[in-house]
C-alpha cells in the first residue's frame, strides 16, 4: 500500500500585512485560510470537508510565526479545527514575519526571507519557538517540518535533529537551484537520512527540461493519477503531494479556481477508490516505518517518464484556468 501524503502548507500571508491590504489576522484569515469567495469558501474547512467525505487524512503544515504580531489566538484558530476533524498538524515556518514584528525569538534587527539566511543557533531558536506555539495551540510536538519557500539548508536539518523533530520535507528534487539549500540532488527522490533527520522529498515526475514537482496546481489530474500509479508499481516509500490553504483561490481577485477545485475533488475520490494507495501521515506507524526503512529497489525511486501528450493537455488546461480565473 502506497501512502499518498496530502500535505497542505497552511499559512497567513506576510505580504498582505506588509502592503497594508490585509493587516489584521481576521482579514488575512479570510483571504488565506478560509478563502471566502462569491461561490463559497475553498480554504482549509472546505478542503477538510472533501477529505472527510472520502475518508482521507491530510498533513497540515501550520506556520505559527504570525503569533509574533497577533498572539496565539491566530494560531489556535487554525490548529483547533484541523485536530477536531482528525487531521495532522506539523510545523511550517516563514521567516518573513520577523521583519514585521516588534519582538523576535532571536532578538531585534535580524530578518531574512528564508531560514537559510540564519545561523544554526538562530534557526534552532526560531524552530523551537514555533514548535512551542503549535503545542500551546493544542497540537502535539511536531514530528515533521517544512521550511517556508522550501528555504532550508543543512543547518536546518541540524537544528531539527537538536530539537527532536525527526522528519523534514523541505526538499523538492524538481526545484533544485531554487531557495532550498539542502545538499541533495534531483536524483534524490527517496527518503534519506541526513544529519540526524530523515529527509522526505516532495514527489516529482519527468517533464520537459528535467522534473516537475508534485503540487496540486502544477500537475493535471491525469498526471497525478499516472504518477501515483507509477510510484505504487515501483514501491516508493511514499508519494508527497504539496498544496496550500489558498491553493484553490485567486486571492487578489477573490475568486475560486474551479479547475483546481475539480482536480482536488476528483483526486480525493480517486485515491479513496484506488486499492493500491491510501492517504498517509507522519503520525501513522505504518507510514513512518516505510519512510525510515524502505525495502524497494536498490537504485531507489525513479520518476515517471515524461509523457508529452499529458504535458500538452495540462498546459492547455492551465492556460484556460489562467484566462478564466487569473
Structure commentary:
By secondary structure, the chain is of the alpha/beta class. It has one domain (2-325): TIM Barrel, CATH 3.20.20. The protein contains 11 helices and 13 strands. The strands form 3 sheets. Strands 1, 2, 3, 4, 5, 6, 7, 10 and 13 form a 9-stranded mixed beta sheet that branches. A two-stranded antiparallel ribbon has the order 8-9. A hairpin with a 2-residue loop joins strand 6 and strand 7. Helix 6 crosses helix 7 (154-163). The longest helix is centred in the C-terminal third of the chain and has 18 residues, at 308-325. The relative contact order is 0.16. The mean pLDDT is 95.
How do the helices and strands line up, and which of them pair or pack?
Blueprint: E1 2-10, H1 14-19, H2 25-32, H3 44-53, E2 59-62, H4 67-70, H5 73-84, E3 88-93, H6 120-136, E4 144-147, H7 154-163, E5 167-168, E6 192-194, E7 197-199, E8 204-207, E9 210-213, H8 221-233, E10 239-244, E11 249-250, E12 255-256, H9 258-273, E13 277-279, H10 285-292, H11 308-325
Parallel strand pairs: 1-2, 1-10, 1-13, 2-3, 3-4, 4-5, 5-7
Antiparallel strand pairs: 6-7, 8-9, 11-12
Amino acid at each position: 500500500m502506497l501512502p499518498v501524503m496530502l500535505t497542505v502548507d497552511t499559512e497567513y500571508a506576510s505580504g498582505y500585512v506588509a502592503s497594508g491590504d490585509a493587516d489584521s489576522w481576521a482579514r488575512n484569515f479570510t483571504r488565506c485560510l478560509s478563502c471566502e469567495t462569491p461561490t463559497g469558501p475553498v480554504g482549509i474547512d472546505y478542503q477538510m470537508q472533501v477529505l472527510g467525505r472520502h475518508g482521507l487524512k491530510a498533513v497540515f503544515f501550520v506556520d505559527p510565526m504570525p503569533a509574533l504580531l497577533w498572539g496565539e489566538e491566530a494560531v489556535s484558530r487554525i490548529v483547533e479545527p484541523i485536530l477536531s476533524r482528525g487531521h495532522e498538524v506539523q510545523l511550517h515556518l516563514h521567516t518573513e514575519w520577523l521583519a514585521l514584528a516588534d519582538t523576535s525569538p532571536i532578538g531585534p534587527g535580524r530578518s531574512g526571507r528564508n531560514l537559510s539566511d540564519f545561523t544554526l543557533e538562530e534557526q534552532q531558536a526560531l524552530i523551537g519557538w514555533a514548535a512551542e506555539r503549535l503545542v500551546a495551540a493544542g497540537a502535539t510536538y511536531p514530528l515533521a517540518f517544512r521550511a517556508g519557500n522550501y528555504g532550508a539548508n543543512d543547518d536546518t536539518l541540524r537544528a531539527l535533529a537538536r530539537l527532536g523533530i525527526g522528519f523534514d520535507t523541505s526538499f523538492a528534487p524538481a526545484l533544485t537551484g531554487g531557495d532550498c539549500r539542502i545538499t541533495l540532488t534531483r536524483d534524490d527522490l527517496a527518503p534519506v537520512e541526513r544529519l540526524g533527520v530523515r529527509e522526505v522529498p516532495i514527489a516529482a515526475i519527468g517533464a520537459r527540461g528535467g522534473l516537475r514537482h508534485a503540487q496540486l496546481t502544477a500537475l493535471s489530474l491525469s498526471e497525478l493519477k499516472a504518477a501515483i500509479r507509477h510510484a505504487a508499481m515501483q514501491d516508493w516509500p511514499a508519494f508527497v503531494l504539496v498544496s496550500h490553504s489558498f491553493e484553490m483561490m485567486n486571492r487578489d481577485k477573490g475568486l475560486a479556481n474551479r479547475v483546481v477545485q475539480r482536480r482536488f475533488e476528483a483526486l480525493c475520490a480517486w485515491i479513496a477508490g484506488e486499492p493500491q494507495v491510501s492517504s498517509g501521515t507522519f503520525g501513522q506507524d505504518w507510514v513512518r516505518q516505510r519512510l525510515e526503512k524502505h525495502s524497494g529497489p536498490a537504485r531507489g525511486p525513479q520518476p515517471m517518464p515524461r509523457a508529452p501528450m499529458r504535458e500538452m493537455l495540462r498546459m492547455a488546461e492551465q492556460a484556460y484556468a489562467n484566462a478564466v480565473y487569473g
